[in-house]
Design a protein that fits this description.
Elements: H1 2-26, E1 32-34, H2 45-61, H3 66-85, E2 88-90, H4 102-122
Antiparallel strand pairs: 1-2
Helix pairs in contact: 1-3, 2-3, 3-4
């Protein structure tokens, strides 16, 4: 599970970074540079706290759930944006929902699926 999680996580990171590169290159008018945290609501440093927490959790608890790696590497992709562009590159706009990117999708799905999975384990 550890190796598969890392490989899939790197795939997410690469997919997200390539999608952002292509949008910045060919469709720059779609880009919104988010200098805040989640969907522009939280401060930017909350993402660093989340990534550090997940890293420690994996390292110390030896908890190698596949979904943790999905969340971790998607968060790292957004953190790379903060370093490279001084903000997260968001470009997907659906209705009145805040603009987001593929890493945000993986983070959200990973969190929801992890909560569901863990709640099923506790109910057994």
């Amino acid at each position: 599970m550890f190796n598969k999680g890392i490989l899939f996580g790197f795939g997410i990171l690469i997919f997200d970074q390539v999608s952002k590169f292509l949008v910045l290159r060919f469709f720059p008018n779609l880009v919104l540079l988010n200098q805040n945290g989640s969907w522009g609501v939280l401060p930017w440093w909350t993402s660093i706290i989340g990534i550090v927490f997940l890293g420690f959790y994996i390292f110390y608890k030896k908890y190698y759930n596949f979904l943790i790696f999905v969340i971790l590497f998607a968060g790292l992709s957004n953190l790379f944006d903060r370093v490279l562009y001084n903000g997260v590159v968001d470009f997907i706009k659906i209705g009145n929902f805040p603009v987001f990117n593929f890493a945000d999708v993986f983070i959200s799905l990973g969190v929801v699926m992890l909560i569901y999975k863990e709640s099923k384990i506790e109910n057994k």
